[in-house]
Design brief:
It is a single chain. By secondary structure, the chain is an alpha+beta fold. It has ten helices and eight strands. The longest helix has about 120 residues. InterPro entries: L1_C, L1_dsRBD, L1_RRM_dom, Transposase_22. Belongs to the transposase 22 family. Keywords: Coiled coil.
Length: about 350
């Protein structure tokens, strides 16, 4: 009997050892209850080790999964926070965008208002420019009319004065005895004996100018002699230029013929003559339109202001004296040129 039992155990061992070799890699095998009862102690130990190894792997896998779950939770929390922060930033940006949009709308409204005002201002400026242009044209027409009127008046004055002779230097009251016509005849007799006998020379009218005598005026008023013809006037003036010095009862007088242009030219010397007079330069306005004055002990005579300016440049003291008045004259003529 014992031998049979040993044989059976040996057969069982053989049966156990005859299991396929590839079953070693299988962690857990499916065993029936009968199989488990027939298993040997070694196989149980092996099975227990396999179960422990599997349990260990399961625990490690569980730990790894839990770590991953925890990391995912943290990542999810960070993502949630980021989402909240992003949401807040989006809200802030939305507020900023809204404010910017409102500011842009206000700026658009302001620009539109300014554009409208600029349009109105441009229209006003255009109207003012049109009015200014009309005023300039009106002033130009008025100036042209004034120039034409002056020219007409000058022509009329020249026409009226053509046969006239002015006698300068006749003392006031001398005409009481013979009258101005008699004095003129005396002048002709004293200076031009041949003309005095010319019966064709007739005096139509004689008077002093201005009509009213100014007691404060040191020089006598001019005597205006109106002759019958221009031919006689020119004849007398020619003789006067040839004789140079004309006298009346021994006193020097002067015969002149002042047209409107000559009078205007003489007037233009007045400001310069006044400055020279204030500085004791003894200025005189000679016939027809020359300026004479004393400079450094010599008498200087100038026919035009240009010649005077050229001379003044060489005399520093005189240049300083006449600087303002010559500059004013230059500026005045410049404005007249621009207007023309």
């Amino acid at each position: 009997m014992p031998n049979n039992k040993r044989k059976n155990r040996g057969n069982k061992n053989k049966e156990v050892t005859m299991t396929p070799s590839n079953e070693k890699d299988t962690p857990i095998q499916d065993y029936e209850d009968d199989d488990i009862e027939e298993m040997q102690e070694a196989d149980l130990k092996k099975l227990i080790r396999t179960l422990r190894s599997s349990q260990k792997q399961i625990l490690e896998l569980h730990k790894s999964l839990m770590d991953k779950i925890e990391n995912l939770s943290r990542a999810n929390e960070i993502l949630r926070r980021n989402q909240n922060e992003t949401k807040q930033l989006v809200q802030q940006e939305t507020v900023i965008v809204t404010e910017v949009k409102n500011s842009i709308d206000q700026m658009k409204n302001t620009i539109e208002s300014l554009t409208n005002r600029m349009g109105e201002a441009e229209e006003r400026i255009s109207d003012l420019e049109d009015r200014e242009q009309e005023r300039i044209q009106s002033d130009q027409r008025k100036e042209e009319e004034i120039r034409n009127l002056k020219h007409i008046v000058g022509n009329l004055q020249d026409t009226i004065k053509k046969p006239n002779i002015r006698v300068l230097g006749v003392p006031e009251g001398m005409e009481r005895e013979k009258g101005l016509e008699g004095l003129f005849s005396e002048i002709l007799a004293e200076n031009f004996p041949g003309l005095e006998k010319d019966r064709e020379i007739l005096v139509q009218e004689a008077h002093r100018t201005p009509n009213k005598h100014d007691q404060k005026r040191s020089s006598p008023r001019h005597v205006v002699i109106k002759l019958s013809t221009v031919k006689h006037k020119e004849k007398i003036l020619k003789c006067a230029r040839e004789k140079c010095q004309i006298t009346l009862r021994g006193s020097l007088i002067r015969l002149t013929d002042f047209s409107s242009e000559t009078l205007q030219a003489r007037r233009e010397w007045r400001d310069i003559a006044q400055v020279l007079r204030e500085n004791n330069c003894q200025p005189r306005i000679l016939y027809p339109e020359k300026l004479s004055f004393v400079n450094e002990g010599e008498i200087k005579t100038f026919h035009s202001k240009q010649k005077l300016k050229e001379f003044v440049v060489t005399r520093p003291a005189l240049q300083k004296m006449l600087k303002d008045v010559l500059h004013t004259e230059t500026k005045k003529h410049g404005h007249q040129y621009e207007r023309r």
